[in-house]
Design a protein that fits this description.
Radius of gyration: 20 Å
CATH superfamily: NAD(P)-binding Rossmann-like Domain
Strand content: 5-15%
Number of helices: 13
Distance between the termini: 44 Å
CATH topology: Rossmann fold
Structural class: alpha/beta
Order of helices and strands: EHEEHEHEEHEHHHEHHHEHHH
CATH architecture: 3-Layer(aba) Sandwich
Largest sheet: 7 strands, parallel
Helix content: 40-55%
Strand order of the largest sheet: 3-2-1-4-5-7-8
Length: 327
Amino acid sequence: MKILVTGCAGHLGEAVVRTLRDSHYEVLGLDIKDSPFTTVVGSVSDRSCVTGSMRGVQAVFHAATLHKPHLRTHGRQDFVDTNITGTLNLLEEAVAAGVEAFVYASTTSVFGAALVPPQGAAAAWITEDVRPVPKNIYGVTKAAAEDLCQIFHGKHGLPCIVLRTSRFFPEADDNRELRDSYSDENVKANEYLYRRVDIQDVVSAHLLALKHARAIGFRKYVISATTPFLQEDLAELQVNAPAVVRKRIPTYEAEYVRRGWKMFPSIGRVYVNERARQELGWQPTYDFNYILSRLRAGEDMRSPLARLIGSKGYHAEVFTEGPYPVG
């Protein structure tokens, strides 16, 4: 099977290409940046480039995107060109080429304002049934691209699976208050409770989406580490997250004390991956309990694939106030 991977020089794209190559797939990587994983240097917004790249392709993993770190360095039209026009180009050419499966790497950022509960309300329980309320051009364009996938399935029968991934990047958090109050490892370990996923688990979700795409047709999935929380925990999570974590994972505190780490005082959202586990048969390895086991053993909490890829950064320049400019 020949598979086109867009955004192949990026974090997710490289991870997908590495895994597909190891599994002896024929892979064509498309990216605006040259890299050891790039076959064609070009943009998804360039229709002729997409047309040429689609020849003989049987499946598409679409990971090319402008995302949150680019909000201050790129214009709104850039987001439209890459995230909407680029996706449209790929979908149209995929239909023309008779592609059998299209897997779109979306983001939990599409939920936008729906992730923030009203003042005094319980934490938000985020499943695929939550209606997105995008709060910036990034969210708007990713949500629009998801809708394009649905249209092309409905009108042309193209099997399209949308994977809304939570955080998997290794770079430091953009929130300066968090960076000043917690070590980077402490932040990321905490996030595995409710909003982080390891890149190795993201790739396994992509492969399962490819496997089941034709049988499913069209579906959206939240791809995040399995949370230990239950819906009955949501009110207390907002006001006393450490107490809830102690209740669900009593052994966590000793390791945190040993490391001088802290749990966040409040957790305002919880991503729920139940649909992906049930319908795709996805079994993510890197949840909070597994992270704890690695920490106790003195091991790196990242997967071998995450360690191999490392940190790419978001921009060519380095910013003094964080990993990317925010405002």
